[in-house]
Amino acid sequence: MAKPIMIQGTMSNVGKSVVAAGLCRIFRQDGYRVAPFKSQNMALNSFITKEGLEMGRAQVMQAEAAGIEPSVAMNPILLKPTNDVGSQVIVNGEVLGNMSARDYFAMKHTLIPQIQKAYRSLDEAYDIIVIEGAGSPAEINLKQDDIVNMGMARLAGAPVLLVGDIDRGGVFAQLIGTVDLLEPEERELVKGLIINKFRGDKTILDPGIRMLQERAGIPVVGVTPYLTVSLEDEDSLSERFGNQEKVDLIDLAVIRLPRISNFTDFNIFESMEGVSLRYVSSPAQLGNPDLILIPGTKNTMKDLLWMRSQGLEAAILKAHGKGTPVFGICGGYQMLGKRITDLQGVEEGGTIRGMGLLDTETIFEAEKARTRVKGSFQNLKGIFAPLSGHSFEGYEIHMGRTTLHSGMCPAAWMEDQVTGKKKEDGCCGENVCGTYVHGVFDREEIATELIRALAKAKGIEEGVGTAMDFAAFKETQYDLLAKGLREHLDMERIYEILWKGTEA
Q: Would you give the distance in Å from CA 10 to the centre of its chain?
C-alpha cells in the first residue's frame, strides 16, 4: 500500500498544486514511485487522456512532475462551471450531466465509492500518493459530506500539510484561523505548516513563526520563496492574466473570455524571445497586436455575446479588416463562423450570429467530442501559410459540430488516436484560422514558424527567438521547482510525517 501525504491550503490559489507537483518530483528523484491525486477538481482547464477520458490539468502537471502517464484515477471528479450557479459534472472522465450547485451538493456523497475505487487503483501501484485538497478545509458551509479536504484525508488516512500564502498578506491569520476552525479530530491530521510565496529575508519571520508554532501546536516545515518557474497554471486567478500592457517585437493578444478554458494552449509563446503574450478584456487593452487569439470557453454563445457587449467583437473585426490575423481554438473557432445554433439547450438555446470571419456553422449536440489526435496542417492561407505541412498533436474536447460552407477548406487532416478514424479539422481563410485541437502550438516548429511569419510581415529579421522543445522545457521547470522546495522545506521532517502517517 502507498503512503499518502496531503497538501491543503488556507484558501484558493495559495500554491497547493505547485507544492504538490514539487513534492511529486522530489519523491520521484529520490527513487519512489509517486502519483498525484485530487478527488474533486473545479476548473475549466482540462485534458484528455490516451483513453479519451477527461481530467483536470493540475493533476496532469503533477503526473508529468512524477514522470508518469496521466490517468483519470488521479482526478475522479471534475466540475466545469457553466455559469455562476452550476457546473458540468464529470466522473471518471465521463460526463454525468449539468447540475446546479445545490443539486450537486445534495448528491456528492454518492460519489464516495467512485473516489475510493480510483484511490485504491493508485494505492496498489505506487509507493507514495500526493493528495491535493481544494480551497480551504475551514469553509463551514462546505464541510458537510466533504470529499476533497479533511473528508478525503480521513478516507486515505493521510497526514496534512497546510499551506498559507504570505504574498497575499495575513499569512499568520490564515494559518491560525484555519487551524482554529477545524474540528479537534481534523486538527490532529495537520502535521505541518508551510508559508508559501515569501519574498525577502526569512529571519524577519522568525518571531511570527515561533508564535505560530506555539499557538497552533504544529511545526512549520518550510518557508518557501516566490519561485520563478513556468508551469501550466489552471487557476482562474493566474498571474498570467495580469499582463495587459507589455508589448514586445511580436505582440500576441489573447481574448480573456469570462469562461476561458485551456488557456495553456498559448504557454509556449511565453518562453520565446521578443514575443509578448497579453490577456485582454476590452478594446482599449487590445491595442494593435500582431495576432489575435480567441481561446476555448465553457460557454461559447454567452462569451460571444459578452464580447459583443464589450465592443471587443467590433474591435477584432476592425483589426482584421486592417490586416491583423485571427486564430481561434475550440470555442474561439466556433465564434469565427457565421452562425451558432443550440436547439437542445446545451448552452443558451436558440441561434445567434457568429463573427462571420469564416463561412462555417456550428450546431451544438448533447454528446461531447473527447479524444486525442495527431495530424498535419493542409494548404493554409495568408500569414498562416508557412504552417502548411507541419505535424501537430493534441486533444479535442467540445460539444459542437462545425460545418464548412462555400468551398471552404479544412485547416488540417488528422487521425483520432482513440478510434483510429481519419477526419478533417478546422477551417482557414485569408488571415483567419480556426481549429478544435488544444495543444496545436505545443510543437516548437509550429510556434516558431508562426512567429517568424509574423516577424517577416513586420520586416523584423532579428530579436525574435525560436521556440524551445516545450516538453523538455517543462522538465527543466519541474527540476527547478524541486530544487527550490528542497532548499526551503524541511524534507527530513516531511519524510518523517509521511512514514508515520496520521500517527506522527
A: 20
Q: What is the pTM of this model?
A: 0.89
Three-state secondary-structure class, residue 247: coil
Q: DSSP labels for 362-402?
A: EEEEEEEEEEEEEEEE-S--GGGGGGTT-EEEEEEEEEEEE
Residue whose C-alpha is closest to residue 404's, from 383, 431, 391, 423: 423
Which residue is listed with cell 508554532? 213
Measured CA to CA, the distance from residue 427 to residue 425 in angstroms comes to 7
CA distance 211 to 193: 13
SS3 407: coil
**Is the separation of the CB atoms in 161 and 51 below 8 Å?**
no
- In this structure, are residues 354 and 334 in contact, taking their beta carbons and an 8 Å threshold? yes
Closest CA to 474 of 37, 51, 60, 104: 60
Rg (CA), the chain: 23
CA separation, residue 326 to residues 332, 384, 397 (Å): 10, 10, 21
CA gap 484, 493 in Å, rounded: 17
Is the Cβ–Cβ distance between 451 and 275 less than 8 Å?
A: yes
Taking only the tens of pLDDT, the chain with its 504 residues reads 899 999 999 999 899 999 999 999 999 999 999 999 999 999 888 999 999 999 999 999 999 999 999 999 999 999 998 877 789 999 999 999 989 989 998 999 999 999 999 999 999 999 999 999 999 999 988 888 899 999 999 999 999 999 999 988 899 999 999 999 999 999 999 999 999 999 888 888 999 999 999 999 999 999 999 888 888 765 544 566 666 668 999 999 999 999 998 888 999 998 899 999 999 999 999 999 999 999 999 999 999 999 999 999 999 999 999 999 999 999 999 999 999 999 988 888 899 999 999 999 999 988 889 999 999 999 898 999 999 999 999 999 998 899 998 778 899 999 999 999 999 999 999 899 999 999 999 999 999 999 999 999 999 988 898 888 888 999 999 999 999 999 999 999 999 999 998 875
**CB-CB contact of 409 with 433 (8 Å):** no
Query: Cell digits for 416?
Result: 483520432
- Angle at Cα 299 formed by Cα 293 and Cα 302, nearest 5°? 90
List, by residue number, the catalytic residues: 330, 438
Of 364, 371, 423, which Cα lies nearest the Cα of 396?
371
